[in-house]
């Protein structure tokens, strides 16, 4: 009896002490969610979560890491650096000279009105430049770079890219892939490395250059537009259109089609079976000796008047006009220009188009070409 009375206070005490077990009716305190970092009016460094975040920074020079997830970040004022990292992000630089890095995912980068730098990195990205002098790198993927006004530089890099320069003197370099480049107004330089690209210079004195080696035969389209343009084809079968202005067209390799358009143009076919049309204006056509693989066809040679054309022939120092001859093609108004060396005659050019009946050696100018071996 004494034992029971002695133990009773201990039993009652045990009922009042929590020794680590959980009662069935016990309710745990919920974990409060972590709030995203809040921007201030100063220069912030903000590291967002890996979820889908939305953040508008304030007016300092901010550095924002968006993390994984589909994020929307606006830099607002200041010279901001916004890193999208993973996910399909929307990064807006807004005011200031900003740096936007998309990271992985299909990102939209909008630099705003000033001089911004944008890098889409991996994914099919969209880069929007505004009116400043912007620098854009598309990275891997099929990217669209719309750089807007200003003197911009855009690099598509790998993928099938679209590059738009807008108003200003722009440099657009698409890199490899099936690309489309449009310089817009201004004196632009457009470069691509694909064999089937479209390059449009727009108004202004533009330089269009395809740096390819002819892995396909479909060829690129180069359209200089208005202005005094310089167009150079690549290794495939290219089409070069000079448009209005005094243009220079170089077909390079491949079976090319060259059309100078209005103006006093210079057309050089290069290797391959080339077709050249001067258009309105006093044009200069070029062929050379020794004759490279292929042939040269001129469709609209004008022999007399203020817009009389000239056929220049690049030759060695021992070639004279006496080595050349003009032969009429029976049943047509076409003529052929031949070079004769001993008993061997080689066609230099086939001239057609109905206005060639007066073509003679007086329309030919020999230009001595110095080879590397002779220097």
Automatic annotation (TrEMBL):
- Basic and acidic residues biased stretches: 86-101
Record key words, sorted: Secreted, Signal
Q: Known Pfam families for this protein?
A: HemolysinCabind
Which Gene Ontology terms cover its molecular function? Answer: calcium ion binding
PROSITE patterns for the chain: HEMOLYSIN_CALCIUM (PS00330)
Provide the protein's localization: Secreted
**UniProt-listed InterPro entries:** Hemolysin-typ_Ca-bd_CS, Hemolysn_Ca-bd, RTX_toxin/Mannuronan_C5-epim, Serralysin-like_metalloprot_C
SUPFAM superfamilies (UniProt xref): beta-Roll
The signal peptide stretch is 1-17
Give GO cellular component annotations, separated by semicolons.
extracellular region
According to the UniProt record, where is the region Disordered? 22-45, 69-161, 176-203, 217-257
Q: What are the Gly residues biased-composition ranges?
A: 129-157, 222-236
Name of the protein this chain belongs to: Cyclolysin
- The protein's organism comes out as Tropicibacter naphthalenivorans
């Amino acid at each position: 009896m004494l034992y029971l009375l002695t133990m009773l206070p201990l039993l009652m005490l045990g009922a009042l002490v929590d020794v680590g077990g959980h009662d069935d009716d016990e309710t745990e305190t919920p974990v409060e969610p972590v709030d995203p970092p809040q921007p201030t009016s100063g220069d912030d460094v903000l590291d967002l979560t890996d979820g889908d975040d939305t953040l508008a920074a304030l007016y300092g020079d901010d550095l924002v890491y968006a993390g994984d997830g589909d994020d929307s970040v606006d830099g607002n004022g200041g010279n901001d650096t916004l890193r999208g990292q993973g996910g399909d992000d929307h990064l807006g630089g807004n005011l200031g000279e900003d740096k936007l890095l998309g990271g992985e995912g299909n990102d939209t980068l909008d630099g705003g009105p000033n001089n911004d730098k944008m890098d889409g990195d991996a994914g099919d990205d969209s880069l929007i430049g505004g009116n400043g002098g912007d620098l854009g790198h598309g990275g891997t993927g099929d990217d669209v770079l719309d750089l807007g006004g200003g003197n911009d530089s855009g690099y598509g890099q790998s993928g099938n890219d679209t590059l738009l320069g807008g108003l200003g003197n722009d440099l657009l370099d698409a890199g490899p892939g099936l690309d489309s480049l449009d310089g817009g107004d201004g004196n632009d330089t457009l470069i691509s490395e694909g064999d089937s690209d479209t390059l449009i210079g727009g108004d202004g004195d533009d330089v269009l250059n395809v740096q390819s080696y002819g892995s396909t035969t479909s060829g690129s389209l180069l359209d200089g537009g208005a202005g005094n343009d310089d167009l150079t084809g690549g290794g495939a079968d290219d089409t070069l259109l000079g448009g209005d202005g005094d243009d220079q067209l170089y077909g390079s390799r491949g079976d090319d089609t060259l059309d100078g358009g209005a103006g006093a143009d210079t057309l050089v076919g290069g290797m391959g079976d080339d077709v050249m049309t001067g258009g309105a204006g006093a044009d200069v056509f070029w062929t050379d000796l020794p004759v490279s693989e292929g042939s040269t066809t001129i469709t609209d040679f004008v022999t007399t008047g203020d817009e009389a054309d000239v056929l220049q022939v690049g030759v060695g120092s021992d070639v004279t006009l006496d080595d050349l001859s003009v032969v009429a093609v029976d049943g047509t108004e076409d003529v052929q220009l031949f070079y004769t060396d001993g008993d061997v005659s080689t066609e230099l050019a086939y001239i057609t188009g109905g206005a060639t009946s007066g073509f003679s050696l007086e329309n030919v100018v020999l230009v001595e070409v110095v080879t590397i071996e002779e220097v």
